[in-house]
Amino acid sequence: MGRKWNNIKEKKASKDKNTSRIYAKFGREIYVAAKQGEPDPESNRNLKVVLERAKTYNVPKAIIDRALEKAKGGADENYEELRYEGFGPSGSMLIVEALTNNVNRTAPEVRSAFNKNGGSMGVSGSVSYMFDETAVIGLEGKSADEVLEILMEADVDARDLLEEDTTVIVYAEPDQFHAVQEALGQAGVSEFSIAELTMLPQTEVTLSEEDLAQFEKLVDALEDLEDVQRVYHNVDMEGES
């Protein structure tokens, strides 16, 4: 799973270069999660997931508070969660998640981004079967053996553990996301370098330099769309054939 972690790091680094965009997307995601239940992360687990993820991206408290206050104030903006699937160059696959208040706007924009950047839209299910929804938690300050012992003592299951430099990454089933964090928190871990519910590819493809450049343009075009929240893919961004 090492390469998959590299892809997550790459996506985080890319988004960190566009702080205003990522903050706006988090504001929308926090608002929607808060509106779907109580605007309290202790009673709204979906909201808690979003807030924990926002923390790893250093989203300012002011933006989080503004989104929560908007939800508490009874704002009636309605957003629909959508998923699009498609293909890029040389066997690359993408999953695009969106939050939109205008489906008639979002679908054509996503399709246009694919078509103008060497890709094509697929039908529902044409790509997602090649990805697994996964909880990914990264931390520093402990070894993989220590983390494994902590999780075993707390009776928490993990799919896999990876130790890379000073970071330990835990891969787990989505329903174990909070259990992993709580077990590690009780063992003294106060911060996580990554806290994601993500879609990881079962296998990755390595693109030529030319195809990789085209693929990066496609991902950038999709992520630049206002309604798009996240883009998942199966490309090894560090490799080159």
Automatic annotation (TrEMBL):
User: What Pfam families does the record tag this protein with?
Assistant: TACO1_YebC_N, Transcrip_reg
Entry's HAMAP family? Transcrip_reg_TACO1 (MF_00693), Transcrip_reg_TACO1_YeeN (MF_00918)
Family per similarity comment? Belongs to the TACO1 family. YeeN subfamily.
- Residue limits of the TACO1/YebC-like second and third domain? 79-235
Specify the TACO1/YebC-like N-terminal domain's residue ranges: 3-74
This protein's name: Probable transcriptional regulatory protein ACFSUC_13725
Keywords associated with the record: Cytoplasm, DNA-binding, Transcription, Transcription regulation
GO molecular-function terms, A-Z = DNA binding
Where is this protein localized, as stated in its record? Cytoplasm
The primary site where this protein sits is cytoplasm
Give the source species.
Answer: Marinicrinis sediminis
Entry annotated with the keyword Transcription: yes
